[in-house]
Amino acid sequence: MTKKVFIKSYGCQMNVYDGQRMADVLAGDGYAETSRQDEADLVILNTCHIREKAVDKVYSELGRVREIKTARAGQGLETRIVVAGCVAQAEGAEIQRRQHAVDLVVGPQSYHRLPDLLARSRNRRLVDTEFPVEDKFGALPEPDRARTLARGVTAFLTVQEGCDKFCAFCVVPYTRGAELSRPVERIMAEARKLAEAGVRELTLIGQNVNAYHGEGPDGRTWPLWKLLERVAGIPGIVRLRYTTSHPNDMDDDLIAAHRDQPSLMPYLHLPVQSGSDAILAAMNRKHTGADYRRIIGKVRAVRPDIALSSDFIVGFPGETDADFADTMRLIDDMRFASAYSFKYSIRPGTPAADARDQVSEAVKSERLAALQARLEEHRQAFNAAMVGRSTEILLERKGREAGQLTGKTPYLQTVQIDGSGFEPGEIVGVKILSQSTNSLFGRADSVKADGRRADSGVTTDRA
Ligand code: SAH
Ligand code: SF4
Ligand code: F3S
Known about the structure:
- The chain has about 475 residues and is of the alpha/beta class.
- It has three domains: about 5-130, Rossmann fold; about 135-385, pyruvate-formate lyase- activating enzyme (Alpha-Beta Horseshoe), CATH 3.80.30; about 390-445, CATH 2.40.50.140.
- It contains 15 helices and 21 strands.
């Protein structure tokens, strides 16, 4: 009988990707993936350590998983529990002290060793949070066709991992380790496999993806724009995106790719965190608000319609009302199409955790509410501007209501259309008719003559 594995990923896209690769490696060990925790012989929580709340979630989820384990044991069924991801890396053996039911704790750099670790943890609980010398990506199996198809027509592909930037608030350099870029040819091989299985849109991901500097086929170090150009040539791949970027690595060549590379979508997630120079300096971001504005100015000069997105932290230690007002001003000037915003969360072991001028919870809440209200206004305005316009969407899956299909615009907005005659994977020309809080509604006005043709490019709408 095949064994079943349930994998739950928290946090960023890197974890989504890693969760899929764990499923791939475990398939070789006889495990089929299930979306039902109660029928799983193996439960993997792929965790996030970025904010305190994310960590709390893991421990409360572990309590629930233990109950299922106990209930299944009553029926004579074994359930093994694995904690993977960034909490595993950061807390190691502490996890098993707090929750005895955990069989294995495995850090993000050791997933290729999962079958072996599972075998070895049969008799005693294990922790593996080494940063092994071998590259896990090289040792992980490539995704197979059936599993890729089941995951849909868009895919993440990790090209870079880890971070050397050490922002004062952030755990990532500790949980993911030093920056590492995968070689171009390895990425190409994986991208081709994904494309052959029907993937049409690839998002190249990394904690600092625009710092990518992988070994090229010519033996030289390749930057991200060159990698994007190469991946764009893969038959079947019609849309490209990349995330997450750091302002300091947003160089002119990459910006030019937004003008020159037709399959690179007009969307840029570029976290700024704060609009105050004093706070940016205290955060060790190594850029100012003016630097950020300059970069966005250059991007908009080559791609005026680009949808901008960002991350914000409110209530970083020392943040005054005036600092916060600078952030609000930056938001008003930039007009982001979407954004993520958070209250500063103290992370043990990071420099800012020791700061004495911590901001009170009440002030953080107040600022976050004000910030999010303004960001939401801008997001709604960006979406409203699409109503009445024509654009193209990549159909991804069935929509909310029977007969509907859901797709994404080049700007990453969700659009629902009447899906008759269409199927996921097609690029469809649509006219946007109306807007609700989280969706646009459109009418298909043309199918791209040859939506599935290998070499079809997307001409994005710059109207
Ligand atoms: N590598 C990316 C994002 C890393 S984490 C970057 O450089 O921007 C994603 C987001 O979580 C960050 O952009 C930041 O806004 C937020 N974040 C990270 N640490 C945090 C903390 N201690 N408290 C609150 N938000 C945090
Ligand atoms: Fe964290 Fe800063 Fe690195 Fe982003 S750049 S992962 S925020 S340390
Ligand atoms: Fe969280 Fe780790 Fe990603 S801390 S945001 S899962 S890199």
